[in-house]
Amino acid sequence: MLIGLTGGIGCGKSAAAADFAALGFRVQDTDRIVREEVLPAPEVVECAVERWGREVLLDPADAGPAARLDRAKLAQIVFADATERRWWEGVVHPRVGALWRGRVAADPGAEWVIEVPLLFEARLEKGFDFIVCVGANPSVQLARAVARGMTQAQACQRIASQFPLATKLLSAHAVLWNDGSRDFLSAQVETLAAQLRAAD
After folding, report:
1. Dihedrals phi, psi of 71, to nearest 5 degrees
2. Most CB within 10 Å of its CB: which of 121, 134, 171, 188?
3. DSSP secondary-structure letter at 34?
4. Which H/E stretch holds residue 51?
């Protein structure tokens, strides 16, 4: 079973993923893969430096394996310019996909949940058996994004860079609505997991 888990910023994808993991599903968080495995890769660092200069490094004086990308500076660049964002996604997305697909291929019989914020934007929907979208009221979504440390302008910029949440909700096989308590979300995940396992 290969489940794609998506949704808008601040909707609770990671909370839902944690609930799936607690129920025994094998969860892969593509944001974590980007952060921990793709961005530190020397060839990815080199691509970014060639495109935008050494100011995208945490320390512009670093070179070789010591060089690390400044994620905040990268975000400023790619979320302010759609052309730059598409170019960067062309660098990052294939590498992320290769990593999680390799893990799924190594254990195809497992119950997999792949958390992919840009699942529909990247046109990955045909690669999954079932797609779940986590949604929330726009005001709740914005408040959660700001609570995580973004300014309201940054949060609005990130939200605007994605497909409208309504489009994602309509395109998914199932929706988890996360305006309520954490327990309410967990209960929805538990119910959906039981239905998926019964149908598998």
Report:
1. -65, -35
2. 134
3. I
4. helix 42-52
Distance of CA 59 to the CA centre of its chain: 26
Are 20 and 26 in contact, with CB atoms under 8 Å apart?
no
- Give the pLDDT confidence score for residue 169 in this predicted structure: 93
For the chain, list the domains and their CATH numbers: 1-25+111-200 (3.40.50.300), 32-109 (no CATH)
Mean residue pLDDT of the chain comes to 94
Q: Tell me, rounded to whole angstroms, the distance of Cα 197 from its chain centroid.
A: 24
Burial class (CB in 10 A: 0-12, 13-18, 19+), 16: buried
User: Strand locations in the chain, DSSP E?
Assistant: 2-7, 26-29, 112-115, 130-135, 174-177
Amino acid at 132: V
Residue entry with tokens 């990955």: 124
- CA–CA distance, 109 with 18 (Å, rounded to integer): 20
Q: How far apart are the first and last CA of the chain?
A: 7
Q: State the pLDDT confidence band at 159, using cuts at 50, 70 and 90.
A: confident
pTM: 0.91
Please report which helix (H) or strand (E) contains residue 64, including its range: none
19 is written with which tokens?
């609930």
The model's confidence at residue 100, banded by pLDDT at 50, 70 and 90, is very high
The pLDDT of residue 64: 78
Assess whether pLDDT exceeds 80 at residue 200.
no
Contact between 58 and 70 (Cβ < 8 Å): yes
